[in-house]
Write a structure and sequence with these properties.
The complex is a heterodimer of chains A (119) and B (107). With 119 residues, chain A is mainly β. In chain A, 0% of the residues lie in helices and 51% in strands. Chain A has strands at 3-6, 10-12, 18-25, 33-39, 46-52, 58-60, 68-73, 78-83, 92-99, 106-109, 113-117. In chain A, strand 9 and strand 10 form a beta hairpin. Chain B is mainly beta and 107 residues long. In chain B, 0% of the residues lie in helices and 49% in strands. Chain B is globular, with a radius of gyration of 13 Å. Classes of the chains: A mainly beta (119), B mainly beta (107). Chains A and B meet through strand 5 and strand 10 of A and strand 4, strand 5 and strand 9 of B.
Chain lengths: 119, 107
């Protein structure tokens, strides 16, 4: 069955960048879009953006427009999320999640990656 | 952007109770509404999509309905394993905003 395995926890200083990977298995990677969602400690889910794995088209939430880059590598079936100019309030668990085939609800979720931003 | 609200923000009910959570969109989103369950310390799980379609493998005590811009998640008979936070999400157009969540626990 479809699985998404994310890279390990990261600790970054303010102003740095982080790049989280999400390796897919069990399905045809290029046939589905991938969304990224984050969850700050004790808070709710926040949608960040999505990318078409086949075309590379992206759409970002307005608040991340200037700092977020989503990419995919179809040869390794891996999606990447890079967030730049990190601030303390970027401390969160970051999830990749596979969109449904024609719609954008999220049926398969990654394992989650904790990113801590601290000086 | 379309805003999503949920009510209540938390509730406590007894095992076997019928539980209802409401999600409201600030503008029309048709039926492009999903519900997720997130148990403490776990990854979110899709319960319902298209407002009322049960995801495969989800117990039939969960159901969803829609009336205009109001959406409802119902647990017909609350079980101990249903302790979780429940989120709605719109997916008709970007941004695919989540509601703030409803925490459900056992009285």
């Amino acid at each position: 069955q479809a699985q998404l395995v994310q890279s390990g926890a990261e600790v970054k200083k303010p102003g740095a960048s982080v790049k989280v990977s999400c390796k897919a298995s069990g399905y045809t990677f290029a046939n589905f879009a991938m969304s990224w969602v984050r969850q700050a400690p004790g808070q709710g889910l926040e949608w960040m953006g999505w990318i078409s794995a086949h075309h590379g088209n992206t759409n970002y939430a307005q608040k991340f427009q200037d700092r977020l880059s989503l990419t995919t590598d179809t040869s390794t079936q891996t999606a990447y999320m890079e967030l730049r100019d990190l601030r303390s309030d970027d401390t969160a668990v970051y999830f990749c999640a596979r969109d449904a085939e024609y719609y954008h609800y999220l049926g398969v979720w990654g394992t989650g990656t904790t990113v801590i931003v601290s000086s | 952007d379309i805003q999503m609200t949920q009510s209540p923000s938390s509730l406590s009910a007894s095992v076997g109770d019928r539980v209802t959570i409401t999600c409201r969109a600030s503008h029309d989103i048709s039926s492009y509404l999903a519900w997720y369950q997130q148990k403490p310390g776990k990854v979110p799980k899709l319960l319902i999509y298209a407002a009322s379609t049960l995801q495969s493998g989800v117990p039939s005590r969960f159901s969803g309905s829609a009336s205009g811009t109001d959406f409802t998640l119902t647990i017909s008979s609350l079980q101990p394993e249903d302790v979780a936070t429940y989120y709605c999400q719109k997916y008709n157009s970007v941004p695919f905003t989540f509601g703030p969540g409803t925490e459900v626990d056992i009285k």
